[in-house]
Amino acid sequence: MDTFRQRRILFDFPVKMLAFIFSSIAYFTNGWAELASDHAFWHYVGLYPWGDIDHQRKWWNQAPWWYLVTWILMTVAFIIQFLTSVAILVVIVKNKNTLCIHKTNLIVSSICCILLSMAMVLWGTKYWKERESSETSGLYVSLGYSYWLLFVAVIFSMVDVAISGYIYHCYTLRKRNDSH
């Protein structure tokens, strides 16, 4: 593979990994929302139900629909991002650089960006409504650090889509010019 193409894919990989790292940290930490009462008691709510797993409870029976949808979106995005990161590593190591790889990378990056964005918007919207309804009872709800880590992951994911699109565009132009 020539260095021109190799440099592009090497430039995409760190951005893809940063999006994966930030979304993974957001997914597995318990700071999606912060709850406080008038007595200054802070409680953190996580997306991944670590406490329920320890107690063998079926958390999905008690969770609201939007919580489950957010969890599903984040789980699917996590799996896709992990598999894509491994695939890009294989491409880099084996020096395989084909149109199919770049097209697939663009499609998968776009899907991950959409999934992460949907999770962020859904969680933020529903917690904003919870916040409005709970302030009258003395309970204060705010978005936690995990949510903001997801926000950073979405930004990196958008940059990844832009880079993947640019790589795909350059590769198709180069292929077209090479064929003439």
TrEMBL record:
Keyword annotations from UniProtKB, A to Z: Membrane, Transmembrane, Transmembrane helix
Bilayer-crossing regions: 9-28, 65-93, 105-125, 145-168
Keyword Transmembrane part of the UniProt annotation: yes
Pfam families the UniProt entry points to: Claudin_3
Transmembrane keyword on record: yes
One Gene Ontology term from the biological process aspect of the record: innate immune response
UniProt-recorded name of the protein: Uncharacterized protein
The organism of origin for this protein: Ancylostoma ceylanicum
Organism lineage string: Eukaryota, Metazoa, Ecdysozoa, Nematoda, Chromadorea
Name of the gene encoding the protein in the UniProt record: Acey_s0411.g957
